[in-house]
Amino acid sequence: MKVAIMGAGLSGLACAIRLEQLGIYPDIFEKRGSIGDRFVNGEVLLTIFSRPVRDEISYLADQYQIYLHPTGHIGEFIIHSEHEQAKLSGHLGFSNIRGRHENSFENQLGRQVKSNIHYHSEHTYEELVRDYTHVIVATGDAEYASEMRNFEVDLTVTLKGATVEGDFSRYCVMCWLDDRYAPKGYGYLIPYSETEANLVIAFPDELHSTPDSGDEKWKLFYERVCSDLGQNFKITDHFEVNNYMIGQCNEPRIGNSLFTGNCLGTIMPLFGFGQFPAMLSGIYAAEDLCGLGSYIETTKEIRESYQNSMILRKWYEKMNNSQKDKLVKKMNGYWGEKLLTTQMDVLKIISRFLRWGGK
Ligand SMILES: Cc1cc2nc3c(=O)[nH]c(=O)nc-3n(C[C@H](O)[C@H](O)[C@H](O)COP(=O)(O)OP(=O)(O)OC[C@H]3O[C@@H](n4cnc5c(N)ncnc54)[C@H](O)[C@@H]3O)c2cc1C
């Protein structure tokens, strides 16, 4: 068996580590000059989005000997709406860094890989399919899957963010739900350390309308966060991602090509969480090649979560600011904490209820 992995991101590297554990050394092809060679940004793993797994970091370590060190565990999560605020405490998840930072998740995974990584790769999928017995398509975008007519895009998103300097608690993550600067979307603050954080707005692109640079929205958001935290943040870096595709492939495996990570459809439409399912999909792809379970079967749960998340997104998109205020008010304290820390897969339950209610 001769395996090529296209893309040295979360799903591609997780796949390589699992393959190596099972005795196969793939060739990895990465188009960039090094792992994670892009803007630095903060991301989170929220346990509510990974049920039934309650702790993604220990799950990856215990089940698959994949070791990741997050920036911090999230002990407090503050949700702001236009007029309300909910403060939730408990073990709610982890924050981590992505991109060219030496401790980014992809760099941590990269240090656990022994196989050859070919950087600045210009190899096309067609060449890899010809030269290898199996190809893992882990490119983090749906380009190849789309070209092969194997991907349905449900929405595209603009993400506009900055690295800011200020005073932060690395154990506290915040989000803002307010249509004025993130229509149908959200804004968030994820600390990298006590002095640096990532400040981002993410909102879906409107179909058939002229693209919005988001500059005005970003300015409003920045002012709101400065005012809420009583600080004037210094911006040291910024990034923008346009047309970030959220969708699902039709077939997780076509012949001997397996689609992982965002190419499979691991980015959840509600709030864009995708790191954990991306890594799992890479692991499942490796196990399929080694006869440890059909990829179509093992990814079923991820694909179902995607559908549930899409239902929740549609429900969320219908909410105006005063409804968001009501929701956030209800979430403050006991019920919010129960929702975020319960063992149950609450998102699955709520989406089933919405699906049933919508009939
Ligand atoms: C700004 C932003 C914020 C996010 N925040 C969160 C969050 O807080 N929590 C969360 O869970 N998820 C979040 N996500 C989603 C998460 O980052 C992705 O779901 C995850 O990285 C997908 O992993 P992947 O393996 O599919 O792709 P990636 O990790 O992006 O890796 C793809 C790799 O393939 C390479 N590549 C691309 N094309 C080619 C090619 N033709 N040949 C070779 N190599 C190629 C790329 O250079 C890259 O290294 C966020 C995404 C963005 C953009």
TrEMBL record:
SUPFAM superfamilies attached to this UniProt entry: FAD/NAD(P)-binding domain
Gene3D superfamilies (UniProt xref): FAD/NAD(P)-binding domain
InterPro entries linked: FAD/NAD-bd_sf (IPR036188)
Protein name, as recorded: FAD-dependent dehydrogenase
Lineage, top ranks: Bacteria, Bacillati, Bacillota, Bacilli, Bacillales
